[in-house]
Amino acid sequence: MSYGTRRAPFGEVAEDEWRRQVDVNLHGLWLTLAATLPVLRRAPRGRGLFLGISSEVVYNAGPGRSGYAATKAAGSALLDSVAQEEGPDGVRVVQALPAGMVDTPGIRRRRPAGFDYGDYMTPGHFAALAGELVVGDAASRHHGDSLVVDAAGRWHSVRETHPASQSRDTRPPARDRETRPVTPAREVPA
Questions:
Q1: In a 3-state reduction of DSSP, which class is residue 57?
Q2: Which ranges in 42-88 belong to alpha helices (H)?
Q3: Does 68 qualify as catalytic in the annotation?
Q4: 3-state SS assignment for residue 140
Q5: Is the dihedral of CA 26, 31, 34, 35 positive or negative?
Q6: Would you state the pLDDT for residue 186?
Q7: How far is CA 29 from CA 16, 56, 66, in A?
Q8: β-pairing, 92-98 with 155-157?
């Protein structure tokens, strides 16, 4: 996964950094699918499973992460297309979206020495979901779905509730309760 060297406004992202994010986050996913789908298709019917780990930025792009957000959204669209091509009897395709920050080598490169990762998610947070996808019926029920996984290991479909943004408030702005007079439209002479 490539986050970029730092969060930066679009105009400050160098082309080589943009290309690296596209190459790692999108082309890397394509290469992974190209290598694994043929093997997964040979699994007994309904047993092949591709679990993509993505990001809440698919739904909440946020400022300063245009390349990361664009590649994650494109990767989600790629997995959506593959899920539709596979259909309900092919390889089951499910995406997991962490509800919080995940302790990864990429994140560690961006944090200062001595940073406390105690609140960050780890691969273990996905264990309950992975188990249910492999031995339960969740993969069949959620084929083509994105599932938000929280720090307690609970998960839900984005069809129920979209993930919260980790970088900005996505709630609609509070509206004035005061009503304002409506100014009548003026007629424009022909």
A1: helix
A2: 66-86
A3: yes
A4: helix
A5: negative
A6: 43
A7: 19, 17, 18
A8: unpaired
CB atoms < 10 A from the CB of 92, how many? 25
Number of residues that make up the chain: 190
Structure tokens at 128: 């309950």
User: Which of the residues 3, 59, 68, 120 is marked catalytic?
Assistant: 68
CA distance 52 to 88: 17
Along the 190 residues of the chain, how does pLDDT read in single tens digits? 565 666 788 888 899 999 999 999 999 999 999 999 999 999 987 689 999 998 888 888 888 888 889 999 999 999 999 999 998 888 999 999 998 888 888 788 888 899 999 989 998 898 899 889 988 888 888 999 999 999 888 999 998 877 776 655 544 555 543 444 444 444 444 4
Nearest residue to 7 (alpha-carbon basis) of 100, 107, 95: 107
Q: Cα separation of 77 and 52, whole Å? A: 12
Distance separating alpha carbons of residues 130 and 126, to the nearest angstrom: 6
Helical axes 28-41 vs 66-86, angle rounded to 10°? 20
pTM of the model: 0.79
* Distance, CA of 187 to CA of 61 (rounded, Å): 42
Give the residue carrying structure tokens 């792009």: 61
